[in-house]
Amino acid sequence: MNFPFIPDEEDRIMIEGYMEQIAFLILALFAVVGGLITVTHRHPIYCALGLILCFLSISGFYAMLGAPFLAAVQVIIYAGSIMTLFVFVIMLMDLTREDLKMPPSKFSTVVASFLGFVLLLEMLMIIGGGFLTGKMGSWTPEKVDSVGHTRVLAQVLFTEYLYPFEIISFVLVVALVGAILLGKKKLHLGGKE
Amino acid sequence: MVPLSWYLSLSAILFFLGVVGMMTRRNTIIMLMCIELMMNAANLTFVALSHYLHSMNGQMFVFFIVAIAAAEVSVGLAIIINLYRLKASVDPDDMNRLQG
After folding, report:
1. Contact A39 B20 (CB under 8 A)
2. Domain ranges, ordered by start, for chain B
3. Does residue A47 contact residue A38 with C-beta atoms inside 8 Å?
4. For B4-92, which CATH class?
5. In this complex, which of A82, A130, A132 lies closest to B69 when CB atoms are compared?
6. CA nearest to A61, candidates B16, B63, B45
7. Chain B: closest CA distance from residue A28 (Å)
8. Which pLDDT value is given to residue A193?
9. Is A42 helix (H, G, I), strand (E, B) or coil?
10. What's the count of helices (H) and strands (E) in chain A, helices before strands?
């Protein structure tokens, strides 16, 4: 290596690749730790906080994968509104010590973890098999960058996926009405009083 | 460049955590959180594959899944609140009116 070290184009790409891998590993650590807290912690509030940590690191992955709009959506909708909903419901519940005890039977936990490990092993074997291929699309990262990710997403959403978009708005209205109906103090689902 | 298999392995691990939490925890709120965790693992797979296959379809699916997740959580939490009012408990084992 020459001294003083002046990175040429090839070195620059290599260093950027390493930086990306380091960023991936750090974010992956946060995501897995958040998931572990969610699954193992006794108190639901800490589980919710762990899940928020996991969601924020997943939004970092979206940013790394060239989808900044989805990263923003992840932060705003998942970490912002959905988890707020969870935290509010946990606070409404007024859970006592009795509710927070962990499952007494250790046997079912062991069996469930074993089955989960089998599933994980199967998924990792499929990934390691290396036959995950697909038809290449036309949206190369350079093309997306030149147009702008949000603009590309909007173009695809309002042309190719227009009907699903309309249906999703209907689904959201139904969910809104359903949540209000279910959240009312006295629930009368038809029938006599 | 991060290899595609790293992303897929990570989402497999997150999905595994969600599945194990779903099976071991006895608290309906945490079970719902585990469903969210599994959904996010699937979303990560979608976005990673859509990036590496130069396609926009995966990202559109993530967009719709986020909307569906918002709807699902609002209705699911409303149901959990109703069950809590009925049984004063969040343990799914207590909800045995249908003798399941």
Report:
1. yes
2. 4-92
3. yes
4. mainly alpha
5. A82
6. B45
7. 7
8. 45
9. coil
10. 8, 0
Report the pLDDT value the prediction gives residue A138, as an integer from 0 to 100: 84
Residue A15 touches chain B, beta carbons under 8 Å? no
- Confirm if B48 and B7 have CB atoms less than 8 A apart: yes
| Beta-carbon separation of A24 and B37 below 8 A | no
How much is the pLDDT for A22? Answer: 93
Does position B12 have pLDDT exceeding 80, yes or no?
yes
> Hey, where are the domains in chain A?
6-97, 143-184
Residues of chain A with pLDDT under 50: 193
Q: B4, A132: Cβ pair inside 8 Å?
A: yes
Q: pLDDT per residue over B19-34, tens digit each?
A: 999 998 888 999 999 9
A 133-192 near B (Cβ less than 8 A)? 134-141, 152-153, 156-157, 160-161, 164, 168, 171-172, 174-176, 178-179, 182-183, 187
Q: What distance in Å separates residue A146's CA from the closest CA in chain B?
A: 14
Q: Output b/e per residue, B4-25; b: 16+ Cβ within 10 A.
A: beebbbbbbbbbbbbbbbbbbb
The span from the CA of A115 to the CA of B63, in Å, is 31
Residue contact B30–A47, C-beta within 8 A: yes
Question: B67-85: b or e for each residue (b if 16 or more CB lie within 10 Å)?
Answer: bebbbbbbbbbbbbbebbe
- Asked if residues A129 and B8 have their Cβ atoms less than 8 Å apart, the reply is no
The conformation of residue A76, written as its DSSP 8-state character, comes to I
**For A39, which of B10, B17, B50 is closest by C-beta distance?**
B17
* pLDDT tens-digit series, residues A106-151: 788 889 889 999 999 999 998 888 666 778 888 888 888 888 889 9
Report the gap between the CA of B24 and the closest CA in chain A (Å). Answer: 5
CATH numeric code, A6-97: 1.20.120.1200
Q: What confidence score (pLDDT) does residue A82 get?
A: 93
Chain B residues with CB-CB distance to A96 below 8 A:
none
